[in-house]
Design brief:
alpha/beta, seven-stranded mixed β-sheet, three-stranded mixed β-sheet, 8 helices, 12 strands, globular, glycosyltransferase, transmembrane helix
Length: 328
Amino acid sequence: MHHKGSHSGSEELYNPVTGMPDEVRRWKGGPKFHVALTATDAPYSKWQCRIMYYWYKKMKDMYGSDMGGFTRVLHSGKPDNLMEEIPTVVVDPLPEGLDRGYIVLNRPWAFVQWLEKATIEEEYILMAEPDHIFVNPLPNLAHGDHPAAFPFFYIKPVENEKIIRKFYPEEKGPVANVDPIGNSPVIIKKVILEKIAPTWMNVSLRMKDDPETDKAFGWVLEMYAYAVASALHGVRHILRKDFMLQPPWDTEIGKNFIVHYTYGCDYNMKGELTYGKIGEWRFDKRSYLRGPPPRNLPLPPPGVPESVVRLVKMVNEATANIPGWDTE
């Protein structure tokens, strides 16, 4: 799966101020948003959450940030050993068998439960995932009732009109009203998400129950479900390409805000990408399904793009500073 394009960003949010006292430099920007991270209790999810939370804490109070509180929404139904390290609310998974092995179907149900039971001070919520790293301070990209979302190149509602129409009837409007997004990353008003979340859950389950839809959308089914649910409520998102970058396809960090390390990064020792073939040097989160990566991962060879180098350095910084890293 190939991702094209470099991301241009928000010049007005670039911080030219350095070396000033914290109280002067502190961002006086938009309304705060609460960071909500859905997760499981699997080792693979845990180590990613720990790195993600480390960088949240580093970026939260920097100039340019509108980050508020943080919650790991743990949809395992029971507490785990990270409860004291990361602020966590435990919610129930779907009834056994309902996800049919597609674990992310638990995500909308987790949000429904969390929104019902939690006291969230902030007016806005950022829906985030374990394999996100904050690489620059994140401002509130939403504008009033218009949430902000990252446009995914592989979410194509118009090209899948026949299937989308099963869930988004013609009387609701053109299929182009369905944004090319998933639920994450999205910054959205809490009151709007409270309306969308139950619809998102129900559309997800209906899509999974429909063999044609399940086959067509595969692992991005739940993303399409969020896009359709939002459109059913008349919600349009501000599409921000600078919201996130995805190595190895996006080669520069620039002024983007989140690194999403979902793709494997494989290179030969000349620094040439060998995508689809295990490289002489590689970083792939799936290499660490049963436990965390070791501290001090080797850096990429010369010639590898800055985004990949920075990703590995950020992982190494987090693992060097998180207490008890190797015991997880």
